[in-house]
Design a protein that fits this description.
Layout (H helix, E strand, L loop, with lengths): L15 H35 L6 H38 L1
Length: 95
């Protein structure tokens, strides 16, 4: 029992490969959100230019949900992409 060193709880050792994997995942979330929101925007443009507005509630809800999920993915993906990018830069500086 003697001679054991206490573990520092304020330091976290990050794996560079795990951080790279998280960076790719967060970038994929950002890209998916951009595609979803872009699809919504293109649909809105098409509807406004042709006048083919949906008549039932189901397509309106589905399209609004697509835009909402897309904007959430953009926000979450952007936040985690920047965080993971920063962690990767710090790990390259430390090496």
């Amino acid at each position: 029992m003697a001679g054991q060193n206490p573990v520092a709880t304020d330091q976290i050792v990050l794996s560079a490969s795990k951080t790279r994997q998280d960076y790719r995942l967060s970038f994929a979330l950002l890209f998916a959100g951009i595609l979803m929101f872009g699809g919504f925007s293109l649909f809105e443009y098409w509807v406004a230019s042709t006048g083919n507005y949906p008549t039932s509630i189901a397509p309106i809800v589905a399209i609004s949900l697509l835009a909402s999920v897309g904007s959430i993915l953009i926000t979450v993906g952007a936040i985690f992409t920047v965080i993971n990018w920063s962690l990767l830069r710090k790990s390259h500086r430390a090496a």
